Protein backbone atom coordinates (compact mmCIF):
# COMPACT_ATOMS: atom_id res chain seq x y z
CA UNK A 1 0.00 0.00 0.00
CA UNK A 2 2.81 2.38 0.93
CA UNK A 3 4.51 1.64 -2.39
CA UNK A 4 1.26 2.38 -4.27
CA UNK A 5 0.88 5.71 -2.50
CA UNK A 6 4.48 6.68 -3.30
CA UNK A 7 3.96 5.76 -6.97
CA UNK A 8 0.70 7.70 -7.03
CA UNK A 9 2.31 10.81 -5.54
CA UNK A 10 5.14 10.61 -8.04
CA UNK A 11 2.69 10.32 -10.91
CA UNK A 12 0.68 13.25 -9.60
CA UNK A 13 3.77 15.41 -9.47
CA UNK A 14 4.66 14.47 -13.02
CA UNK A 15 1.16 14.72 -14.43
CA UNK A 16 0.06 17.93 -16.07
CA UNK A 17 -3.49 19.25 -16.05
CA UNK A 18 -4.06 17.11 -19.14
CA UNK A 19 -4.53 13.37 -19.06
CA UNK A 20 -1.59 11.14 -18.03
CA UNK A 21 -1.91 7.56 -19.33
CA UNK A 22 0.44 6.31 -16.62
CA UNK A 23 -1.72 7.92 -13.98
CA UNK A 24 -4.91 6.45 -15.41
CA UNK A 25 -3.42 2.98 -15.67
CA UNK A 26 -2.21 3.11 -12.09
CA UNK A 27 -5.54 4.39 -10.81
CA UNK A 28 -7.46 1.70 -12.66
CA UNK A 29 -5.20 -1.07 -11.41
CA UNK A 30 -4.99 0.15 -7.81
CA UNK A 31 -8.53 0.60 -6.53
CA UNK A 32 -7.52 1.91 -3.12
CA UNK A 33 -5.26 4.57 -4.62
CA UNK A 34 -7.92 5.44 -7.18
CA UNK A 35 -10.63 5.99 -4.58
CA UNK A 36 -8.51 8.36 -2.53
CA UNK A 37 -7.47 10.35 -5.57
CA UNK A 38 -10.87 10.42 -7.26
CA UNK A 39 -12.91 11.60 -4.33
CA UNK A 40 -10.37 14.28 -3.47
CA UNK A 41 -9.45 15.72 -6.84
CA UNK A 42 -12.31 14.74 -9.26
CA UNK A 43 -10.02 14.39 -12.31
CA UNK A 44 -12.26 15.47 -15.21
CA UNK A 45 -9.34 15.64 -17.63
CA UNK A 46 -8.88 11.88 -17.95
CA UNK A 47 -9.32 10.57 -21.50
CA UNK A 48 -11.52 7.60 -20.67
CA UNK A 49 -11.71 6.42 -24.25
CA UNK A 50 -7.98 5.62 -24.19
CA UNK A 51 -8.40 3.22 -21.27
CA UNK A 52 -8.91 -0.46 -21.92
CA UNK A 53 -12.04 -2.32 -20.86
CA UNK A 54 -10.43 -3.81 -17.75
CA UNK A 55 -9.42 -0.36 -16.51
CA UNK A 56 -12.83 1.09 -17.30
CA UNK A 57 -14.61 -1.71 -15.45
CA UNK A 58 -12.75 -0.80 -12.25
CA UNK A 59 -13.77 2.84 -12.57
CA UNK A 60 -17.31 1.99 -13.70
CA UNK A 61 -17.70 -0.25 -10.68
CA UNK A 62 -17.17 2.81 -8.50
CA UNK A 63 -20.05 4.67 -10.24
CA UNK A 64 -17.78 6.90 -12.32
CA UNK A 65 -20.21 8.03 -15.03
CA UNK A 66 -17.60 8.95 -17.70
CA UNK A 67 -16.05 5.50 -17.33
CA UNK A 68 -19.48 3.86 -17.54
CA UNK A 69 -20.22 5.69 -20.78
CA UNK A 70 -16.80 4.99 -22.28
CA UNK A 71 -17.16 1.30 -21.48
CA UNK A 72 -20.66 1.21 -22.96
CA UNK A 73 -19.36 2.75 -26.20
CA UNK A 74 -16.55 0.20 -26.43
CA UNK A 75 -19.00 -2.65 -25.89
CA UNK A 76 -21.36 -1.25 -28.54
CA UNK A 77 -18.44 -1.03 -30.97
CA UNK A 78 -18.07 -4.78 -30.43
CA UNK A 79 -21.86 -5.22 -30.95
CA UNK A 80 -22.25 -6.34 -27.33
CA UNK A 81 -25.50 -4.45 -26.92
CA UNK A 82 -26.87 -6.27 -23.87
CA UNK A 83 -23.53 -5.99 -22.03
CA UNK A 84 -23.40 -2.24 -22.70
CA UNK A 85 -26.92 -1.48 -21.47
CA UNK A 86 -26.36 -1.62 -17.66
CA UNK A 87 -23.43 0.80 -17.89
CA UNK A 88 -25.16 3.59 -19.80
CA UNK A 89 -28.30 3.08 -17.73
CA UNK A 90 -26.28 3.61 -14.56
CA UNK A 91 -24.79 6.81 -16.01
CA UNK A 92 -28.25 8.29 -16.69
CA UNK A 93 -28.59 9.44 -13.09
CA UNK A 94 -25.49 11.64 -13.43
CA UNK A 95 -26.53 14.92 -15.04
CA UNK A 96 -23.35 16.65 -16.15
CA UNK A 97 -22.61 18.84 -19.15
CA UNK A 98 -19.04 17.54 -19.16
CA UNK A 99 -20.37 14.19 -20.44
CA UNK A 100 -22.28 15.66 -23.39
CA UNK A 101 -19.74 14.49 -25.97
CA UNK A 102 -19.76 10.98 -24.52
CA UNK A 103 -23.55 10.86 -24.66
CA UNK A 104 -23.41 11.92 -28.32
CA UNK A 105 -20.95 9.12 -29.05
CA UNK A 106 -23.13 6.62 -27.21
CA UNK A 107 -26.40 7.60 -28.88
CA UNK A 108 -24.80 7.51 -32.34
CA UNK A 109 -23.64 3.97 -31.66
CA UNK A 110 -27.11 3.02 -30.44
CA UNK A 111 -28.57 4.51 -33.63
CA UNK A 112 -26.19 2.50 -35.81
CA UNK A 113 -27.32 -0.61 -33.93
CA UNK A 114 -30.99 0.43 -34.36
CA UNK A 115 -31.62 0.42 -30.61
CA UNK A 116 -34.77 2.53 -30.77
CA UNK A 117 -36.12 1.63 -27.33
CA UNK A 118 -32.82 2.58 -25.70
CA UNK A 119 -32.74 5.90 -27.56
CA UNK A 120 -36.30 6.63 -26.46
CA UNK A 121 -35.30 5.99 -22.83
CA UNK A 122 -32.29 8.30 -23.08
CA UNK A 123 -34.36 11.02 -24.77
CA UNK A 124 -36.55 11.16 -21.67
CA UNK A 125 -33.52 12.21 -19.61
CA UNK A 126 -31.21 14.04 -22.01
CA UNK A 127 -31.55 16.08 -25.19
CA UNK A 128 -30.44 14.19 -28.29
CA UNK A 129 -28.47 15.68 -31.15
CA UNK A 130 -30.44 16.34 -34.34
CA UNK A 131 -28.58 13.50 -36.09
CA UNK A 132 -30.08 11.08 -33.56
CA UNK A 133 -33.34 12.80 -32.61
CA UNK A 134 -34.65 13.14 -36.18
CA UNK A 135 -34.37 9.45 -37.17
CA UNK A 136 -35.82 8.50 -33.77
CA UNK A 137 -38.86 10.68 -34.49
CA UNK A 138 -39.18 9.07 -37.91
CA UNK A 139 -39.02 5.61 -36.36
CA UNK A 140 -41.88 6.67 -34.10
CA UNK A 141 -43.94 7.65 -37.16
CA UNK A 142 -44.32 11.35 -36.41
CA UNK A 143 -45.89 13.56 -39.12
CA UNK A 144 -43.47 14.74 -41.84
CA UNK A 145 -43.84 18.31 -40.53
CA UNK A 146 -41.86 17.26 -37.43
CA UNK A 147 -38.83 16.44 -39.58
CA UNK A 148 -36.76 19.42 -40.66
CA UNK A 149 -36.30 20.09 -44.36
CA UNK A 150 -32.58 20.69 -43.80
CA UNK A 151 -32.15 17.27 -42.19
CA UNK A 152 -34.08 15.58 -45.00
CA UNK A 153 -32.11 17.32 -47.74
CA UNK A 154 -28.80 16.57 -46.03
CA UNK A 155 -29.73 12.88 -45.95
CA UNK A 156 -31.09 12.77 -49.51
CA UNK A 157 -34.80 12.27 -48.91
CA UNK A 158 -37.93 14.43 -48.86
CA UNK A 159 -40.67 15.23 -46.37
CA UNK A 160 -42.77 17.18 -48.88
CA UNK A 161 -44.64 15.24 -51.56
CA UNK A 162 -45.05 18.44 -53.55
CA UNK A 163 -41.28 18.83 -53.86
CA UNK A 164 -40.94 15.62 -55.88
CA UNK A 165 -40.95 15.91 -59.67
CA UNK A 166 -41.27 13.22 -62.32
CA UNK A 167 -38.33 12.76 -64.66
CA UNK A 168 -38.06 12.24 -68.42
CA UNK A 169 -38.66 8.50 -68.36
CA UNK A 170 -41.34 6.27 -69.86
CA UNK A 171 -42.46 5.34 -66.34
CA UNK A 172 -41.91 7.14 -63.04
CA UNK A 173 -42.06 5.39 -59.68
CA UNK A 174 -42.76 7.28 -56.45
CA UNK A 175 -40.84 5.93 -53.44
CA UNK A 176 -42.49 6.30 -50.01
CA UNK A 177 -41.64 5.07 -46.49
CA UNK A 178 -43.25 5.34 -43.07
CA UNK A 179 -40.11 5.01 -40.91
CA UNK A 180 -36.40 5.86 -40.76
CA UNK A 181 -35.10 2.42 -41.74
CA UNK A 182 -37.50 2.42 -44.68
CA UNK A 183 -35.98 5.62 -46.02
CA UNK A 184 -32.47 4.18 -45.72
CA UNK A 185 -33.49 0.94 -47.40
CA UNK A 186 -35.16 2.78 -50.28
CA UNK A 187 -31.98 4.81 -50.76
CA UNK A 188 -29.99 1.58 -50.97
CA UNK A 189 -32.40 0.02 -53.47
CA UNK A 190 -32.44 3.18 -55.56
CA UNK A 191 -28.65 3.44 -55.60
CA UNK A 192 -28.31 -0.15 -56.75
CA UNK A 193 -31.01 0.31 -59.37
CA UNK A 194 -29.34 3.45 -60.74
CA UNK A 195 -26.07 1.54 -61.05
CA UNK A 196 -27.80 -0.94 -63.39
CA UNK A 197 -31.29 0.12 -64.41
CA UNK A 198 -33.58 -2.75 -65.34
CA UNK A 199 -34.77 -3.79 -67.77
CA UNK A 200 -33.16 -0.96 -69.73
CA UNK A 201 -31.90 2.53 -68.87
CA UNK A 202 -34.45 5.30 -69.36
CA UNK A 203 -37.55 3.14 -69.11
CA UNK A 204 -38.23 3.50 -65.39
CA UNK A 205 -37.07 6.23 -63.02
CA UNK A 206 -37.19 6.06 -59.23
CA UNK A 207 -37.92 9.21 -57.23
CA UNK A 208 -36.05 10.39 -54.19
CA UNK A 209 -37.59 8.64 -51.13
CA UNK A 210 -40.34 10.56 -49.32
CA UNK A 211 -41.04 10.17 -45.60
CA UNK A 212 -44.78 9.83 -44.93
CA UNK A 213 -44.91 9.02 -41.21
CA UNK A 214 -47.82 7.00 -39.85
CA UNK A 215 -50.50 8.82 -41.87
CA UNK A 216 -51.03 5.75 -44.09
CA UNK A 217 -51.45 3.50 -41.03
CA UNK A 218 -49.34 0.67 -42.42
CA UNK A 219 -49.70 -2.61 -40.55
CA UNK A 220 -47.36 -5.50 -41.04
CA UNK A 221 -45.93 -8.58 -39.40
CA UNK A 222 -43.65 -11.40 -40.47
CA UNK A 223 -45.48 -13.96 -42.55
CA UNK A 224 -48.37 -11.62 -43.38
CA UNK A 225 -48.75 -9.26 -46.33
CA UNK A 226 -47.73 -5.66 -45.74
CA UNK A 227 -50.80 -3.43 -45.74
CA UNK A 228 -51.31 0.34 -45.83
CA UNK A 229 -54.46 2.45 -45.78
CA UNK A 230 -54.34 4.35 -49.07
CA UNK A 231 -57.77 5.93 -48.62
CA UNK A 232 -56.46 9.29 -47.27
CA UNK A 233 -54.22 9.82 -50.30
CA UNK A 234 -56.84 8.52 -52.73
CA UNK A 235 -59.25 11.15 -51.42
CA UNK A 236 -56.69 13.99 -51.67
CA UNK A 237 -55.37 13.86 -55.26
CA UNK A 238 -53.78 17.30 -54.99
CA UNK A 239 -51.24 15.96 -52.51
CA UNK A 240 -49.66 13.60 -55.02
CA UNK A 241 -47.15 14.93 -57.56
CA UNK A 242 -48.16 14.58 -61.22
CA UNK A 243 -46.39 12.40 -63.74
CA UNK A 244 -45.95 9.24 -61.67
CA UNK A 245 -47.19 5.82 -62.73
CA UNK A 246 -46.45 3.55 -59.80
CA UNK A 247 -45.89 3.76 -56.03
CA UNK A 248 -43.51 1.76 -53.84
CA UNK A 249 -44.26 1.89 -50.11
CA UNK A 250 -41.58 0.63 -47.70
CA UNK A 251 -43.01 -0.79 -44.46
CA UNK A 252 -41.30 -2.17 -41.35
CA UNK A 253 -42.30 -5.79 -41.89
CA UNK A 254 -44.62 -7.92 -43.97
CA UNK A 255 -44.49 -9.88 -47.18
CA UNK A 256 -44.10 -7.98 -50.43
CA UNK A 257 -47.17 -7.56 -52.61
CA UNK A 258 -48.56 -5.51 -55.48
CA UNK A 259 -52.09 -4.13 -55.78
CA UNK A 260 -52.62 -2.59 -59.20
CA UNK A 261 -49.86 0.06 -59.43
CA UNK A 262 -48.97 0.06 -55.72
CA UNK A 263 -46.18 -2.06 -54.26
CA UNK A 264 -45.86 -2.63 -50.52
CA UNK A 265 -42.40 -3.86 -49.61
CA UNK A 266 -40.68 -4.33 -46.24
CA UNK A 267 -37.16 -3.34 -45.24
CA UNK A 268 -36.38 -7.05 -44.94
CA UNK A 269 -36.90 -7.69 -48.66
CA UNK A 270 -33.69 -8.21 -50.68
CA UNK A 271 -33.03 -6.52 -54.01
CA UNK A 272 -34.09 -9.52 -56.12
CA UNK A 273 -37.55 -9.42 -54.49
CA UNK A 274 -37.76 -5.72 -55.38
CA UNK A 275 -37.06 -6.58 -59.04
CA UNK A 276 -39.63 -9.38 -58.92
CA UNK A 277 -42.24 -6.91 -57.68
CA UNK A 278 -41.30 -4.30 -60.30
CA UNK A 279 -42.09 -6.87 -62.97
CA UNK A 280 -45.64 -7.13 -61.65
CA UNK A 281 -46.05 -3.47 -62.63
CA UNK A 282 -45.30 -4.58 -66.21
CA UNK A 283 -47.98 -7.27 -66.27
CA UNK A 284 -46.00 -10.32 -65.15
CA UNK A 285 -47.53 -12.84 -62.77
CA UNK A 286 -45.94 -15.42 -60.49
CA UNK A 287 -44.83 -18.81 -61.75
CA UNK A 288 -45.28 -20.69 -58.50
CA UNK A 289 -48.78 -21.92 -57.48
CA UNK A 290 -51.09 -18.93 -57.50
CA UNK A 291 -53.49 -18.24 -54.62
CA UNK A 292 -57.13 -19.25 -54.91
CA UNK A 293 -58.21 -15.64 -55.50
CA UNK A 294 -56.19 -15.54 -58.74
CA UNK A 295 -57.17 -18.93 -60.16
CA UNK A 296 -60.07 -17.45 -62.14
CA UNK A 297 -57.46 -16.35 -64.71
CA UNK A 298 -56.73 -20.02 -65.36
CA UNK A 299 -60.26 -20.61 -66.68
CA UNK A 300 -59.73 -18.18 -69.58
CA UNK A 301 -57.95 -18.85 -72.85
CA UNK A 302 -55.02 -17.09 -74.48
CA UNK A 303 -52.19 -14.92 -73.14
CA UNK A 304 -53.47 -13.56 -69.84
CA UNK A 305 -50.22 -12.08 -68.51
CA UNK A 306 -46.84 -11.35 -70.04
CA UNK A 307 -45.64 -14.73 -68.82
CA UNK A 308 -48.87 -16.77 -68.64
CA UNK A 309 -50.68 -18.44 -71.51
CA UNK A 310 -53.82 -20.41 -70.66
CA UNK A 311 -55.12 -23.22 -72.87
CA UNK A 312 -56.06 -26.89 -72.79
CA UNK A 313 -53.03 -27.75 -74.92
CA UNK A 314 -49.48 -26.41 -74.76
CA UNK A 315 -48.79 -23.72 -77.37
CA UNK A 316 -45.49 -23.79 -79.23
CA UNK A 317 -42.67 -22.12 -77.29
CA UNK A 318 -44.50 -22.28 -73.95
CA UNK A 319 -43.89 -24.59 -71.01
CA UNK A 320 -45.84 -25.81 -68.00
CA UNK A 321 -46.36 -23.15 -65.32
CA UNK A 322 -47.16 -23.97 -61.70
CA UNK A 323 -49.33 -20.86 -61.41
CA UNK A 324 -52.53 -22.60 -62.56
CA UNK A 325 -53.78 -25.33 -60.29
CA UNK A 326 -55.83 -26.84 -63.15
CA UNK A 327 -52.77 -27.54 -65.30
CA UNK A 328 -53.81 -25.12 -68.08
CA UNK A 329 -51.08 -22.54 -67.44
CA UNK A 330 -47.89 -22.14 -69.50
CA UNK A 331 -44.82 -19.89 -69.22
CA UNK A 332 -42.30 -18.76 -71.87
CA UNK A 333 -39.36 -20.82 -70.53
CA UNK A 334 -38.67 -24.34 -69.35
CA UNK A 335 -36.28 -22.98 -66.72
CA UNK A 336 -36.86 -21.46 -63.29
CA UNK A 337 -37.21 -17.70 -63.69
CA UNK A 338 -37.20 -14.64 -61.44
CA UNK A 339 -41.01 -14.88 -61.33
CA UNK A 340 -40.81 -18.33 -59.75
CA UNK A 341 -37.80 -17.90 -57.47
CA UNK A 342 -36.56 -14.33 -57.39
CA UNK A 343 -33.13 -15.45 -56.14
CA UNK A 344 -32.19 -16.76 -59.61
CA UNK A 345 -32.15 -13.20 -60.93
CA UNK A 346 -33.21 -11.70 -64.24
CA UNK A 347 -32.45 -13.81 -67.32
CA UNK A 348 -31.82 -12.29 -70.78
CA UNK A 349 -35.15 -13.71 -72.01
CA UNK A 350 -37.18 -12.12 -69.24
CA UNK A 351 -35.29 -8.87 -69.63
CA UNK A 352 -36.35 -8.77 -73.29
CA UNK A 353 -39.94 -9.63 -72.38
CA UNK A 354 -39.92 -6.91 -69.73
CA UNK A 355 -38.73 -4.30 -72.25
CA UNK A 356 -41.39 -5.45 -74.71
CA UNK A 357 -44.13 -5.11 -72.10
CA UNK A 358 -43.10 -1.61 -71.11
CA UNK A 359 -42.67 -0.39 -74.70
CA UNK A 360 -45.56 -2.11 -76.49
CA UNK A 361 -48.23 -2.64 -73.83
CA UNK A 362 -48.26 0.61 -71.88
CA UNK A 363 -52.02 1.06 -72.26
CA UNK A 364 -52.66 -2.34 -70.68
CA UNK A 365 -50.62 -1.75 -67.53
CA UNK A 366 -52.37 -0.76 -64.32
CA UNK A 367 -51.15 2.43 -62.65
CA UNK A 368 -51.66 3.51 -59.06
CA UNK A 369 -54.38 5.88 -60.34
CA UNK A 370 -56.51 2.85 -61.24
CA UNK A 371 -56.32 1.60 -57.68
CA UNK A 372 -56.96 5.05 -56.18
CA UNK A 373 -59.98 5.56 -58.44
CA UNK A 374 -61.38 2.29 -57.18
CA UNK A 375 -60.86 3.44 -53.59
CA UNK A 376 -62.28 6.94 -53.93
CA UNK A 377 -64.38 7.04 -57.14
CA UNK A 378 -63.02 10.57 -57.73
CA UNK A 379 -63.18 11.56 -61.43
CA UNK A 380 -59.77 13.26 -61.29
CA UNK A 381 -58.06 9.87 -61.30
CA UNK A 382 -59.69 9.19 -64.67
CA UNK A 383 -58.09 12.34 -66.03
CA UNK A 384 -54.67 11.39 -64.71
CA UNK A 385 -54.78 7.94 -66.27
CA UNK A 386 -57.44 7.03 -68.88
CA UNK A 387 -57.12 3.28 -68.21
CA UNK A 388 -59.07 3.79 -65.00
CA UNK A 389 -62.17 4.66 -67.04
CA UNK A 390 -62.82 1.05 -68.01
CA UNK A 391 -61.30 -0.76 -65.02
CA UNK A 392 -58.97 -2.77 -67.23
CA UNK A 393 -57.01 -5.64 -65.83
CA UNK A 394 -59.33 -6.32 -62.90
CA UNK A 395 -57.79 -9.75 -62.55
CA UNK A 396 -54.38 -8.19 -62.03
CA UNK A 397 -55.29 -6.23 -58.93
CA UNK A 398 -55.21 -9.21 -56.60
CA UNK A 399 -52.48 -9.66 -54.04
CA UNK A 400 -49.11 -10.94 -55.19
CA UNK A 401 -47.36 -13.57 -53.12
CA UNK A 402 -43.65 -12.73 -52.85
CA UNK A 403 -40.60 -14.99 -52.64
CA UNK A 404 -39.01 -13.46 -49.56
Structure description:
The protein is of the alpha/beta class and 404 residues long. Strands 1, 2, 3, 4, 5 and 6 form a six-stranded mixed β-sheet that branches. Strands 7-8-10-9 form a four-stranded antiparallel β-sheet, with no helix packed on it. Residues 4-19 and 388-404 have low confidence and may be disordered. It has helices spanning 2-14, 21-29, 31-41, 53-60, 65-77, 81-91, 100-112, 116-123, 130-139, 149-154, 180-195, 231-234, 271-281, 348-360, 368-376, 380-384; strands at residues 171-177, 204-206, 210-211, 246-251, 257-259, 262-266, 302-305, 308-310, 319-320, 329-331. The chain is built from 16 helices and ten strands. The longest helix is centred in the middle third of the chain and has 16 residues, at 180-195. It is elongated, with a radius of gyration of 29 Å. Among the domains are: 1-46, no CATH class; 60-128, no CATH class. Helix content is 40%, strand content 9%.
Defining key terms:
single chain; 404 residues; four-stranded antiparallel sheet; 9% strand; disordered C terminus
What is the strand and helix layout of this fold?
Elements: H1 2-14, H2 21-29, H3 31-41, H4 53-60, H5 65-77, H6 81-91, H7 100-112, H8 116-123, H9 130-139, H10 149-154, E1 171-177, H11 180-195, E2 204-206, E3 210-211, H12 231-234, E4 246-251, E5 257-259, E6 262-266, H13 271-281, E7 302-305, E8 308-310, E9 319-320, E10 329-331, H14 348-360, H15 368-376, H16 380-384
GO molecular function: metallopeptidase activity
InterPro entries: MetalloPept_cat_dom_sf
Signal peptide: 1-24
